[in-house]
Structure formats: C-alpha cells, structure tokens
TrEMBL record:
InterPro entries: RNase_H-like_dom_plant, RNase_H-like_EbsB-rel, RNaseH-like_sf, RNaseH_domain, RNaseH_sf
Superkingdom field: Eukaryota
Protein name listed in UniProt: Putative ribonuclease H-like domain-containing protein
Taxonomic lineage of the native organism: Eukaryota, Viridiplantae, Streptophyta, Embryophyta, Tracheophyta
Pfam families the UniProt entry points to: RVT_3
Naturally occurring in which organism (per UniProt): Rosa chinensis
Classification via SUPFAM superfamilies: Ribonuclease H-like
Transmembrane segments: none
Start and end residues of each RNase H type-1 domain: 57-179
GO molecular function, one term: nucleic acid binding
Length: 206
C-alpha cells in the first residue's frame, strides 16, 4: 500500500507540473500574440475631411523643465491644402493635458474668428476628447479651459472633436514643437508666412 501511495503522489505531482507547463506556454503564446497585435497596428496617415468641411489638427508640446508649452494648429480643406494655421508659445503650464487643452482652445478661437464651419478638430490626446464630451464639472484650471472650448465650439455648427493617433497628427505636432523651441507666435489664413514656409513644406505637408 505504501508503494501504491508513493506512486500516486508522484503521478499527481507529475500531472501538476505538466499543467503548470501547459499554462505557462499558453500565457507565453497569449503575450506574444498581444505584442504582435500592437505592433501590427497599421499606421494611419492624415485623411482629408469631407467636401465642404475643413479639418483642424491641433497639438501641444510640453517642456516640464521650464513649464513652457508650444501650441500648433493646422487647417486643411477637403483637398488636403493647408489654408491656415497658428502657433504660439505659452508659459506657466504644469501638465501635458493643459497644453493640449490650450491648443484646442486656440484652434476653436481661430475657427470662430474666421467662421470655419463645419469643422472637424483632431487631436492625439484622448483624455481631452473625453473631457470635452463629458458633462462633469471640473473647477481646475484645466477644467475651465475645457469649458472655454465647449463655449467656442457651440458657435461652430456641426463641429466636433475626434481622437487620432500621432502619425495622423504629425503636422500640428511639428508646428507645436517649433513654437516651443523658437517662441514664434503666428496666425495666418491663405498663404503660409514666409518665416515658416520652408519649415511647413519640409515637415507639415503629410
């Protein structure tokens, strides 16, 4: 009986080791599949708005060492032509989200001042899009900027905000970095200012 019990214990231990090995293999396969799925996400380049619409891509660049930020906005029509834009450096900002919200407010102000509607606002900050669509009150400085965005957006019929990945927002990102690094402050409609025309041609035409 003692030999039988010993054999049974060894068999149970062997079965447990086999189950652990199989579970480890499944976890490894799952982790590899998840990694491949993320890597396989196709890059989505910028896409034009529908005919009759314009699209504003906006982005913010943040420097945590100086608490400064750069705002970049690029306006394009349904043919992909850059028809306007603005960029600005801001100071006394504390978070990337605040810089993103300031870029969105700048885009809305620009759109209202030039009667650009209907318009699609694109940003790679998912939190900002969620907060703009939310009805929750936020008394922070960031929350007050979001309220300003909603106020301006109400003056732009059919306008809306949507999230895109960074590769679809590269033009606004490059313009925001330019503003941060050079302290340039510009807003234009029509022809791109000569001071940044080469930069826009090299970095913002995708």
């Amino acid at each position: 009986m003692r030999d039988v019990s010993s054999v049974m214990r060894k068999r149970r231990r062997l079965n447990m080791l086999v189950e652990i090995a199989l579970l480890s293999k499944r976890l490894y396969v799952y982790a590899r599949a998840l990694k491949c799925r993320k890597a396989a996400r196709e890059a989505r380049p910028w896409s034009p708005p529908p005919i009759g619409w314009v699209k504003a891509n906006l982005d913010g660049a943040f420097d945590q060492h100086t608490n400064c930020g750069g705002l970049g906005v690029i306006i394009r029509d349904s043919s992909g032509l850059i028809t306007g834009g603005c960029c600005r450096k801001v100071s006394h900002v504390t978070t990337p989200a605040m810089v993103e919200s300031l870029a969105a407010r700048l885009a809305c102000q620009f759109a209202v001042s030039h009667s650009l509607a209907p318009i699609i606002f694109e940003t790679d900050c998912q939190k900002l899009v969620k907060d703009i669509m939310s009805d929750e009150e936020d008394a922070s400085g960031y929350g007050r900027i979001v309220e300003d965005i909603s106020f301006f957006q109400a003056s732009l019929p059919s306008s809306y905000f949507t999230h895109v990945f960074r590769e679809s927002n590269s033009a606004a990102h490059m313009l925001a970095k330019l503003a941060l690094n050079s302290s340039i402050d510009l807003a234009w409609r029509g022809q791109i200012p000569s001071s940044i025309s080469n930069y826009v041609a090299n970095h913002c035409m995708n």
